[in-house]
TrEMBL record:
Gene Ontology MF terms: sterol binding
Protein's UniProt name: MD-2-related lipid-recognition domain-containing protein
Protein species of origin: Hibiscus trionum
Calcium found in the keyword field: no
Highest taxon, organism lineage: Eukaryota
Keywords: Signal
GO BP terms in the entry: intracellular sterol transport
Alphabetical list of SUPFAM superfamilies matching this protein: E set domains
Signal peptide: 1-25
Any Pfam family matching the protein: E1_DerP2_DerF2
Coiled coil: none
Length: 156
């Protein structure tokens, strides 16, 4: 490797370390890794991140669909350290604007988890159905921390 390439790599490394703490990318996986879902997820935005206990949180899922979807439902399951603790079913059109045209869309899910929810590592599984079939299903981890009376969040 020549020195220019090396310097470039080091610069990239420094840059990525710089951005790492603020990036907070949320990694997801498809429920069925073999499935060829109609909608492909490109990203997840959780706000606030981490989620504060007893406070509303927004989960924005960016996705792209290969077929137009007129309506359906979103089945949300929440797991705490792998144990199923909560399920909600919402009309799809409550979480995004319908009909969903071919192309990109954002699904915005608002969630208030009960105040007694212990802080820790959670998994949210979101299965979206349009006209009967699952159009996509993903799961991803998120954290719940204790809210303090001030604005800062410190636990874990
Ligand atoms: C989530 O998506 C909604 C609707 O597109 C938008 O208004 C909101 O600002 C987004 N929130 C975050 C945290 O990205």
């Amino acid at each position: 490797m020549d020195t220019a390439a090396l310097h470039f790599k080091l610069a990239l490394l420094a840059l990525s370390l710089l951005f790492l703490p603020s990036l907070q990318a949320t990694y997801f996986q498809y429920c069925d890794t073999e499935a060829n879902y109609v909608a492909k997820v490109s990203g997840i935005d959780i706000s606030p991140n981490p989620v504060v206990r007893g406070k509303p949180a927004t989960f924005n899922i960016s996705a792209s669909t290969g077929k137009a979807i007129s309506g359906g439902k979103a089945v949300i399951d929440v797991y705490y350290f792998g144990v199923h603790i909560h399920q909600e079913i919402h009309p799809l059109c409550e979480e995004t604007s319908c009909p969903i045209a071919v192309g990109n869309f954002v699904l915005s899910h608002n969630q208030v988890l009960p105040g007694f929810t212990p802080p820790g590592s959670y998994t949210l599984r979101m299965n979206l159905f349009g006209d009967g079939d699952s159009i996509t299903c993903i799961s991803f981890g998120f954290k719940i921390v204790l809210g303090t009376s001030g604005s800062s969040v410190s636990n874990i």
